[in-house]
From TrEMBL:
The lineage of its organism: Bacteria, Bacillati, Actinomycetota, Actinomycetes, Micrococcales. Keywords: Hydrolase. GO terms for molecular function: hydrolase activity. The keyword Hydrolase applies. Pfam families: Abhydrolase_1 (PF00561). This is Alpha/beta fold hydrolase. Coiled coil: none annotated. Residues 24-260 form the AB hydrolase-1 domain. PANTHER family: AB HYDROLASE-1 DOMAIN-CONTAINING PROTEIN (PTHR43433:SF5), HYDROLASE, ALPHA/BETA FOLD FAMILY PROTEIN (PTHR43433).
Amino acid sequence: MTETLVDVPGALLCVETFGDPADPAILLIGGIAGAMDWWHPDFCRALADGGRFVVRYDHRDTGRSRTDPPGAPSYTGDDLALDPVRLLDALGIGQAHLVGVSMGGGIAQQTAIEHPLRVASLTLISTSPVTKVPGAQLPGPTAQAREQFDDPPPDPDWGDPEAVVRYLVAAERAFAGPEYDEPAALATARRVVRRSIDPAAAANHYLVESRPVRGSLADVAVPTLVVHGDADPLFPPEHGAALAAAVEGARFVLLPGVGHQYPPRAVWDVVVPEIHAISAPV
């Protein structure tokens, strides 16, 4: 496993790779305000052990990537959306299998629509369609999820690492499923805080504006896997079902007891083989 800083337009992005660069590439795209640590290293190794070259990265303003002052991002939502293609260019990878969670799933959809030659397959986790799906009636967040937006918790003391860890874990817990693994989340949050230039800057993601996607999900022409938790309070399962229905031939996998979260270890025995199958060489 190798971690390095990669120069892309407007930023240095911290990247870590697993496996043999000669194998088919999988690019993991994290959720909003999420450093790459939320893709657990053991999950990355499990994917790499199946003969894949796995790449994870810190979004701008997370982890060790370029960080702006909190409240003053120097980039747009377009930059976040273009960074996967920019990374592939910088790493000399012509085409990759994209695996995105939440916002990362939206970015993966946009990349497949607007840069189809760079995408070999899509795995979309805990996400929602980025373009309108005709006839779909998608429910809003549950009362539990809405409360997090209507009455958000106060910011922690950003100078107290353990207070930041507790804040991050509480945010994860609010959207996770009933079998939330708090010890694992604590360990990941501590890695995030330890590695981050400024954990407070991650909230800059909520301030940037994005343009509409140029195209529709009907334009997606690569093998697509949609993975969704049946206890997702932010995007109830109807979002995943509509997304799968909008992409011709997409496979829909519903995960019992999983909320709006990165795949927890308890379901890796389902998710990892599914990703290996969708990314298998033709």
